[in-house]
Write a sequence for this structure.
């Protein structure tokens, strides 16, 4: 690589020609001073100078967690002489420069290895796009240059997940051991009831205290712990807020926290993202499934679509028959609402965490308009509750555990009423 | 103060100096007009980051000074000063344009640029001195002119033949040599 002549050479050549013409035309020997600097620069660029040959590499960790600080490293392997390098860092939205680092730098490069580092921080989770550096290398006189753009792979930033202590218990559980108490009697730890001893009962189940009092053998009955299937349903038809903070981003954050909690409880967890695009992940368990879920969740974005998409487009494997569907929705798009109602109508066990758009609304809204809007939303919640769907609102301020607790209370009441 | 702005201010000062050196002692409004217009065009081009316009303005400034040369108002030292100032003006403007997208040069980069300035200044003064010595040794005045004419023809030939190289070379599909 020898580089291309810069504007110094072209402009200098033209001025040199003009000045030489003037010197000859005016027959003045001292007029050579007008042409000399430009002739020197032009001849250097055309004949003498060569931009150093540079092998450049750009590295940055492409997997980060939110608010993590890391370094972007530009490595230049230089051969063929000394030169000047100008490097300009372009960060994707959601990544910022920290400290006293400057985004655009000019420095001298010499044969050997030169490393230039910038300290950056991931401000928001998601797939942020590549980090780019525009690099221009010139000879020391700036007469020849070679420029290129270096780019990394898109940087994936994972959210800092809230640790949940509560969870939602599916109404129907699997026969696999887990952490949810089954309503059926069986082997377990939690005491449920006592009954009279029948032939075949184990001696260790005998409740000696009760048996002594009633002078007959009585045995304890226990609740077995079972696992369930949970499908996280993201309504991405609409999102209120900005790229940095929106209801959809909060939905994804809560979904990631719920997935982590339920996977830890040995549940099988799946995902359905219904919106402009349809994405789904069939339920599964274990750490690998958790990683898969988070990978899908950090790519969550709203894709504008006017298509009336329903749950009919979902493959049956995405929604097992007896799963608990936890819908995360701002409840502002009729298509998302209709999907939730349709799920319930088909007999799915549905709970809704409403991502409140309130904090994202402009403060200039009049009280009357705001009041009417709140009434409308309350009507939507009431309609869902009438259908047996637990609804709780999360405004981003309180802990998600509180929301899960209020959902649990409603779901228990519905169960009791059903009995 | 940002370095690019400081360099632009220095370029303004150098342009003002060129206009003064060109116009002082001249009665023809054409000289002043050419100098002032050239300086304004160059400064406007620099302000908008257009190097080509800077060169056009510098050419106009040189044109204005050419009238001074023909009338004989300027002496040899004045010619050297104008030559260096016009070149310095162009160099300051180009450097200002280079650094304008908020580039922060480190100390060594600044020293390297200053070294380049010193080198070109030194070579220019040397060439000017040699021309002056030859002029003094050959008082008939014909020798330097002939040398200058021959050197000009050679330099022009190199520059003109080099200008087409400035255009990007087209690489046609299939024309690459094996292994490229």
């Amino acid at each position: 690589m020898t580089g291309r002549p810069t504007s110094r050479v072209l402009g200098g050549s033209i001025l040199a020609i003009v000045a030489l013409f003037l010197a000859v035309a005016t027959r003045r020997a001292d007029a050579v001073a007008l042409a000399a600097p430009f002739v020197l620069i032009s001849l250097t660029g055309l004949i003498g100078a060569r931009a150093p040959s540079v092998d450049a590499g750009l590295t940055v960790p492409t997997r980060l967690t939110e608010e993590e600080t890391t370094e972007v490293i530009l490595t230049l392997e230089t051969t063929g002489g000394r030169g000047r390098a100008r490097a300009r860092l372009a960060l994707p939205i959601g990544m910022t420069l920290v400290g006293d680092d400057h985004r655009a730098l000019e420095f001298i490069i010499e044969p050997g290895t030169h490393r230039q580092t910038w300290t950056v921080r991931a401000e928001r989770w998601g797939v942020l796009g590549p980090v780019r550096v525009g690099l221009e290398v010139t000879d020391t006189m700036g007469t020849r240059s070679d420029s290129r753009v270096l780019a990394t792979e898109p940087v994936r930033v994972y959210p800092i997940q809230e640790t949940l202590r509560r969870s939602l218990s599916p109404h129907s559980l699997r026969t696999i051991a887990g952490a949810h108490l089954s309503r059926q009697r069986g082997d377990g730890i939690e005491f449920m009831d006592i009954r009279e001893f029948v032939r075949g009962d184990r001696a260790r189940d005998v409740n000696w205290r009760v048996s002594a009092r009633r002078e007959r053998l009585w045995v304890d009955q226990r609740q077995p712990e079972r696992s369930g299937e949970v499908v996280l349903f993201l309504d991405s038809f609409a999102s209120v807020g900005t790229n940095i903070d929106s209801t959809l981003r909060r939905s994804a954050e809560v979904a990631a926290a719920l997935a982590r909690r339920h996977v830890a409880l040995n549940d099988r967890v799946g995902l359905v993202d219904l919106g402009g695009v349809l994405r789904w992940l069939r339920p599964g368990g274990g750490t690998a499934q958790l990683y898969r879920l988070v990978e899908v969740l950090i790519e969550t974005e709203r894709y504008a679509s006017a298509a009336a998409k329903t749950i009919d487009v979902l493959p049956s494997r995405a929604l097992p028959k007896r799963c608990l569907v936890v819908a995360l929705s701002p409840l502002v798009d009729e298509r998302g609402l209709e999907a939730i109602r349709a799920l319930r109508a088909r007999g799915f066990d549905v709970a809704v965490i409403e991502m409140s758009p309130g904090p994202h609304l402009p403060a200039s809204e009049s009280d009357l308009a705001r009041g009417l809007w709140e009434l409308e939303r309350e009507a939507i919640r009431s309609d869902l509750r009438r259908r047996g769907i637990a609804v709780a609102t999360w405004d981003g301020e309180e802990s998600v555990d509180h929301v899960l607790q209020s959902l649990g209370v409603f779901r228990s009441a519905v169960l009791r009423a059903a009995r | 103060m940002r370095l690019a702005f400081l360099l632009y201010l220095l370029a303004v000062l150098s342009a003002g100096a060129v206009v003064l050196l060109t116009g002082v002692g001249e009665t023809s409004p054409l000289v002043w007009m050419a100098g002032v217009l050239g300086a304004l065009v160059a400064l406007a081009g620099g302000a908008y980051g257009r190097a080509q316009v800077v060169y056009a303005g510098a050419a106009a400034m040189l044109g204005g000074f050419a009238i001074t040369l023909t009338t004989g108002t300027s002496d040899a030292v004045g010619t050297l000063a104008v030559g260096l100032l016009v070149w310095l003006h162009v160099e300051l403007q180009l450097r200002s344009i280079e650094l304008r997208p908020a580039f922060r040069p480190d100390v060594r980069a600044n020293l390297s640029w200053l070294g380049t300035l010193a080198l070109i200044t030194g070579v220019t003064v040397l060439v000017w001195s040699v021309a002056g010595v030859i002029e003094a040794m050959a008082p008939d005045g014909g020798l330097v002119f002939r040398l200058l004419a021959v050197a000009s023809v050679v330099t022009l030939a190199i520059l003109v033949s080099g200008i087409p190289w400035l255009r990007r070379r087209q690489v046609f599909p299939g024309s690459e040599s094996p292994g490229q």
Observations:
- Chain B touches chain A through 64 residues (CB under 8 Å).
